[in-house]
Design brief:
The protein is an alpha/beta fold. The chain is built from nine helices and nine strands.
Amino acid sequence: MTTPRFEAAAASAVAALGPQRARALAALLEQGRGAEYAVGEFPSSRTSGEVREVYRAIGAESIPAAAAAAYLRGFSAAWGERRGDAEVTTVWSGPGTPGVPVRSTARVLTEVVREARTELLAMTYAARPYRPLLQALGDAVIRGVEVHIVVETREGAGRLLDGPEPAETFRPLTGVRLWHWPVNRRDHPSARQHAKLAVADRRILFLGSANLTESGVRRNLEAGTVVRGGAAPERAAEHIRALMRQGVLRPLPS
């Protein structure tokens, strides 16, 4: 018996959940847990639809729960092996050198945003309007990407950030969800939200020294890496999501 709907649903679910959480879904199936219970275990809007479709496909094609769980585990293992090889490249801002090919931070970061199809997570310390990046973020929202950006605040930075709040850079982008690390959630008064990264679909991780500003991605001498595949993009996304769920990172008021 062929089960094309379930196989397609399982593939999408594993891609969205990642191998570890897909195995957790398999365990819920074996325990006889229903769709609503499973959706509650994986509550993000990115994954809830995938989980529901797995359950709908199981019902439509009359697949025993044990068989569905076994398939999910096998697909998760294969997915993990396929993602095991990572491609790592370096990116730079600032002056170039003859004979050494480098890719600019501005171009690569914009490409990462453009490649996102379901989820984009980004973090920055400072932020100022940079039109190509803002355009790419706006286009991502339009095509249905769930975009979350974590920024530092002037309060959190003490006296180290001048000008408008970093979040104001992204306020014109309807649909972008802004987060911060509240001062009362920090263990030390001098702690800062200093991470600078972007993760697209848990497949691509940009990690570097550049803030999301024109000086950071174009003018300053900055360095970073892009990781495609492997465990690093997924682990980074899972860590950010966990900080959000635990309330360490919290939504900024509109």
